[in-house]
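Good morning C.,

I know you're traveling, so I'll keep this short. The sequence:
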Amino acid sequence: MLALVAIASPLSAQVGASSDAGERRVRAAETTAAGLPRLAGEVARPRAFAGLAASVSALRDSLVSRAKETVGIKYLLGGNNPLVGLDCSALIRHIVSSFDISLPRTAQEQASMGRAIPKDRSQMRPGDLLTFGSGSRISHVGMYIGEGRFIHASTSKRRVIESSLDERSSSLVRQWKGVRRLVDGDFAAARYDSLFALLDSAMIFRRDSSVPDTSRR
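The tokens, ready to paste straight into the viewer:
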């Protein structure tokens, strides 16, 4: 899977000789860890497949909840501000940015992210990216939320709406090109392994800094 992971709350201070700097790093890491249940439930380091699957499922559910919160936002071509208006690709970026997933700006570029999934509802999962267009051109994107429905910034309705893939008469549905998966086990493993590596490093610093330095005595 493409590298879409960015650790939340990056630490601005590097570990130095000062114990104060070390303590700040530990507190920041612990604060980041405290925020994980919001995304993936009470999950320990996800080494077991069962725990990893649960965290991925919870993250998908969170993406869907975030997407539903955007319904009603005004459509604006080239818009990047949800208070003013968003276009289709800016909407997707707005939704996933809350979960540290970084995407390019345009629908065409977003259509190459993640990995391709068959246009088969039995294989599609909430949080997948749906792409629309004609020929080789991708002109529209939306987020699948399950049960054949998706959320997107509609150019005809001039706002973010929820639509159904069963609307065969819809010109947009007829232009449905493909499915891209942005969230899977690789995403969760990279996200959590990176975070716990950060915590391990911070805890080692705390332990070492608590040992008196006798070298100068």
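Safe travels,
E.
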